[in-house]
Amino acid sequence: MNSSHEKDFSKIGALCAIIGSSITLIANLFHPKDFIPYDSATHLKSIASDQSWGVDHFAFLVAGAIVFWGLLAISDALAKTSEGSLLTLATYSAIIGTVILACFFVIDGYGMKAASDLWLNAPATETTSALYAALLMSKLGLAFGSAYFFWYLGLMPLLYGILIIRGGTFPKWIGITAILGSLLGVLASGGFFLFPYNTASLLFFIGAQAMVSIWSICAGVVLYRHPSA
């Protein structure tokens, strides 16, 4: 890749990091936060009545795809000053995390909505079985959510944060922000996977998603201003 193409790749990637993470922040603001247990009939009713549920989750899905290019551009910039093995782990964690992100938001955005609608519209003789099927879908959503929190909001920003602090490509405070977000992501993952649904884990998730978006936006801004950093 020559210098001109490298700058173009960096600038496009930087824009992707900024735009995709901004979409994530906005979608996070509009996402319902009723603090209702995820695996409950009450939560299923709230999903069925929410007309923006599918649109909101589709925005998360699209944003994840856009941010992925930004993460690759950030990895490319870090390659000039960072260790190869740790950088490889960070890049692979971005790939794996994006795949898990896609699975989670498809299940949560489409599967949960469909299961909730089917339960509420099921014939009286099939209501119980439809409810159990919907609750099973919610358990699957929680499992994928925990994996998403760990990989995408936990491990990935942790590795990038360490690389940023060690290198000189980006300001160190961006790396610190990424690491703080990763700690919240790991807490959210463990909370949802190991314990019953609780408000603390939900708040950890909201905070992690916001901080991970902020660090990638800031890294994108720096990369866009200095594409040959």
Top keywords for this entry?
mainly alpha; 229 residues; single chain
Structural description of this entry:
- The chain is an all-alpha fold and 229 residues long.
- It has 7 helices and no strands.
- The longest helix is centred in the middle third of the chain and has 40 residues, at 127-166.
List the helices and strands and how they pair.
Elements lengths: L2 H28 L10 H9 L3 H26 L5 H37 L6 H40 L5 H23 L4 H27 L4
Helix pairs in contact: 1-3, 1-7, 2-4, 3-4, 3-7, 4-5, 5-6, 5-7, 6-7
Largest sheet: none
Series of secondary-structure elements, N-terminal to C-terminal: HHHHHHH
Derived from helix and strand composition plus strand pairing, the structural class reads: mainly alpha
Shape, principal axes of CA atoms: elongated
SS summary, helix count:
7
Distance, first to last CA? 15 Å
Return the domain count: 1
Relative helix content: over 70%
Mean pLDDT: 89
Low-confidence stretches: none
Our estimate of the beta-strand percent is under 5%
User: Strand tally, please?
Assistant: 0
- What is the gyration radius calculated from CA atoms? 19 Å
In short:
The chain has one domain (3-225). Helices cover 83% and strands 0% of the residues.
